[in-house]
Structures are given as C-alpha cells and as structure tokens.
Amino acid sequence: MIFKPMKTPLYDNRLEVQLTKMLCELDENPKVCTNPVEASSYKGHQLSDTDQGFHRYIYEHLFIRFIEYIESFKAECINAYAVRTHFVPVVKRLLNQYNEAIDSLYASEIRIGWSEYFNETYNSGTKDNLKKLAYQFFYNASAVQISFLGKLMDKMKDYLAEFEVTIPKPEPEYYFTILPEFTSKRHNILYDIHKNLKANGYIDCTDEAFKKVFTTREPKPIRWLESQRSLFYFIKQLSRRLLVENNKTSKYYIAERYFHIYKGGEFMHPKKIKYDKNPSPKVREFMDKVIDDAISAFS
C-alpha cells in the first residue's frame, strides 16, 4: 500500500478580514443623529441596539465563527504536519496585529475625545444632550472592540503555548516600574498595600495579581471597586513615593489599562483619562496611610 502525504492546508482569510474590519480600527466618522438620537450609528450599528447589541453581533456573527475556523485550520495543520510551517506563522501574525490594534485604539485622540462626553452635563432633551448620548455610545462601542481584541490575543497566546513556540514579543511601551531604591523590598511593600486595599473593599484580586501590575510589563488587569477619582489619587501618590515616572505617557493612561473599575459588579468605562479632582478627605487620608505605612514598614 502506498501512502500519499496529505495536502498542505491553505489558510482562508475571509473571516479574518471581516473581523479585522470590525475590530482593529475606530469608526472615525460615525453617524451622529439627534432626530432621533437612536439612529446614530457606529460601524453601521445603531445606538438603539446599544453597545451590548454591538457586542452580541460581533460575538455571534464573527468572533465565534472565526475561532471555529482557526480550530479547524489547526486540525488540518496537525494532520498534515504543518503546524510550525503554516499554523504558527498565522497565529504569530494575528497576535502582533491584535496587539498593535489595541495600542492604537487606546492612544486614539478621537476615542479620548469621546470619553470627555461622560463628564459633560446638558439639559435633558436638548440637542447637545442627545449628541452626548451618541458620543458615549461610540466610546462604549470602541471598548467592545478592545475587549474582543484582548480575547483574541489571549487565544493566540494559548495556541503558541500549546505548541511550545518561543516568539519575540514587542516590548510594551506603557507599564509601571518600581523605583530602584525599593526593588529589593517591593514584594513586601506591595503585599502590604494589597492587604489593606482588599480589606477595605478597594480591590478584588490576589496579592500576586496586584504585585504583577507594578512588576511586570504585561500584567493582567485587576478589579478596582471604588471610584475613578480614588484610583487616580492612589496612582498619583504611588508615583510620588514608589514608582518611576513614565515620560512616554500619562500614569493615568497606564492605570486605565491595568485597573478595571467595577461598580455594582459592572465594568465602568473611565469618564476622563486624566486626573481632575481629588476624592474625599477620608479617602485621601486612607490612601496616604496605606502607602506610607507599607513603605515605612519595609524601609
């Protein structure tokens, strides 16, 4: 009996193209409508469907289908012994593409401009107030894009780990760094800060996950359970005492990436990615004490 080698599988990029078009770039010219505002649209999806509807559409029509296709392509490559020559290169390319897209969306001045509308107040029913609702929808829809890109990056990383492939990762531009004089004591200091923040209901994460936000370049985001003002005040005080100042971007921009604000169990998008006002005196006093006590105890 003569065995014929299996034909090398060919990657079909049609679903990828559709998903890339939906996720990797902002709709920089969305439709703003005030009569009615529900007709405002982002990437062809109306405000009346809400950002949850936008999420549901991407998940059901593109995301799941694309993951199913990637799984089938992986199986074809395994059967044809083409994992390293065909499957892994595709996964590497997709990982870099999604990483670059996330950075681009976070850095977009247009998206930052949309976030400002969460902080503006107008009389109910006015044309300006209706525009505000439209721009809030655009911002929330962009957050859906970022969420799916993060899921895709995690999936690509899982594939690479499965086949034990070492890939060169682009160095993240934005991350927290502990000051050199505290490097040897950083674990104890951060564990102590974590203990007090968690005991008082400010965070929901393990001490290791909290430490990694300040000691690794690609940490997993953790949950912050209090206000944005309290978070940004916390970051401001840490920057004065414990962290190296990042000259490439705002420390509050970094905080937005690695601290996800949750209220009532729901993820809250930042209203403004900059420090504007202090939290209450009680919160400031608590934050200062938590940071000062931790540093003093281990210095």
Question: How would you describe this protein?
Answer:
There is one protein chain. The protein has about 300 residues and is mainly alpha-helical. The chain folds into two domains: about 15-160; about 180-295, no CATH class. Helix content is about 55%, strand content about 5%. The chain contains ten helices and six strands, in the order H-E-E-H-H-H-H-H-E-H-E-H-H-E-E-H. The chain has helices spanning about 15-25, 50-80, 85-105, 110-115, 125-160, 185-200, 205-215, 230-240, 250-260, 280-295, and strands spanning about 40, 45, 205, 220-225, 260-265, 265. A four-stranded mixed β-sheet has the order 3-4-5-6. It has a two-stranded antiparallel sheet with strand order 1-2. A hairpin with a 2-residue loop joins strand 5 and strand 6 (about 265). The radius of gyration is 23 Å and the shape is flat.
Secondary structure layout plus pairing:
Elements lengths: L13 H10 L17 E2 L2 E2 L3 H30 L3 H25 L1 H7 L11 H36 L23 H14 L3 E2 L2 H9 L6 E3 L3 H14 L9 H8 E5 L2 E2 L13 H17 L2
Parallel strand pairs: 4-5
Antiparallel strand pairs: 1-2, 3-4, 5-6
Estimated radius of gyration: 23 Å
Number of helices: 10
Topology as a string of helices (H) and strands (E): HEEHHHHHEHEHHEEH
Give the strand order of the largest sheet, numbering strands 1, 2, ... along the chain.
Answer: 3-4-5-6
Number of strands: 6
Strand content: 5-15%
Question: Mean pLDDT across all residues, rounded?
Answer: 86
Helix content: 55-70%
Q: How many structural domains are formed by the residues?
A: 2
State the shape.
Answer: flat
Report the end-to-end length measured between terminal Cα atoms: 75 Å
- Major beta sheet, specifics? 4 strands, mixed
SSE class:
mainly alpha
Sequence stretches where pLDDT stays below 50 over 5 or more residues? 1-5, 167-171
